[in-house]
Amino acid sequence: MAALLRAEGVGATLGRRQILSGVDFSLAAGEFVVVIGPNGAGKTTLVRRLAGLLDGKGAIYLGDQKAEAVSPRLRARKIGYLPQGHVFHWPLSVADVVALGRIPHASGAGDLGVEDRAAVLAALEATGTLEFADRSVTTLSGGERARVALARVLAGEPQIILADEPVAALDARYQFIVLDLLRARARAGAAVMAVLHDLSLAARYADRLVMMDGGRIVAEGSPEVVLTRQNLAVTFGIRAKIDTVEGQLIVTPQAAL
Ligand SMILES: Nc1ncnc2c1ncn2[C@@H]1O[C@H](COP(=O)(O)OP(=O)(O)OP(=O)(O)O)[C@@H](O)[C@H]1O
To answer: Which molecular function terms from Gene Ontology are attached (predicted)?
Structure first.
């Protein structure tokens, strides 16, 4: 299937450090790709580079157009970026925060139309945040805020979703709900990439896994191909038990090496 997002030989330098180098990556419509890697591997940097928030070597394409040739407004409509550990600084209501996700679609006056309101409501419902739609985001728990941040992204109905640790703050039930939601977006035709730390969840949800280390992609493919004892030892520095239970790969980290 044609890639909605493609990176060719991308790099990024932060401070004076080369953080990413020579990364080739693609994300097709209908695909759910999960990126894994140890702390400092460059996952967030890759997500930010793909989202157009960092410059660097290489090229990024949206469809067959270079990303920088696409207007910022259209880019914002196409790409939904969920940052890691998003912090809200303003005491806006949850409904208003989620409505911000419609800004790239707004008319000149910025008013919400019928479609906008429907998308906001659907995102609130899907993320279980409708029940506190009128509350200020600053009064919510960490997991509740994380779901509001996701709702804002979903409200924009982007073709491409780049989610950096979307379930890190969530309880076990909401981890499934949110990953089911992201997978459903992919099945409905979006191209979805998520960074996850839980390797069993990564295996369960990924159509394709991308393992990073030292700013590079070190393994890529099906969970069975990527999540080997050897790769987990070399890349994560862990000894792990790998089982298949009811067709699902389960990774149990056992010790740091
Ligand atoms: N502004 C900066 N200046 C120098 N180094 C930076 C800067 N920002 C990030 N880094 C470094 O770049 C490397 C990659 O960071 P990045 O946030 O992409 O890692 P990550 O894989 O997302 O890690 P984590 O799992 O901890 O979130 C890290 O070693 C980090 O310290």
So the answer is: ATP binding
Atom of ligand 1 nearest to the CA of 37: 21
| 254 Cα to the center of ligand 1, angstroms | 26
Contact 80, 149 (CB under 8 A): no
- Residue 22 region, left (φ>0) first, then alpha (ψ -120 to 50), else beta? left
Could you give the CA distance from residue 209 to residue 220 in angstroms, rounded to a whole number?
Answer: 6
pLDDT, tens only, 129-144: 999 999 999 999 999 9
**19 CB less than 6 Å from ligand 1?**
yes
- Asked if 78 and 50 touch (Cβ cutoff 8 Å), the reply is no
Looking at residue 177, the DSSP 8-state letter turns out to be H
Calpha distance 169→144 (Å, rounded): 9
pLDDT tens by residue, 2-26: 799 999 999 999 988 999 999 999 9
39 lines ligand 1 (CB under 6 A): yes
Kindly report the pTM of this predicted structure. Answer: 0.95
Q: Is 45 in the pocket of ligand 1 (CB under 6 A)?
A: yes
CA distance linking residue 201 with residue 182, whole number of Å: 13
What residue's CA is closest to ligand 1, atom 28?
40
Can you tell me the ipTM of this complex? 0.98
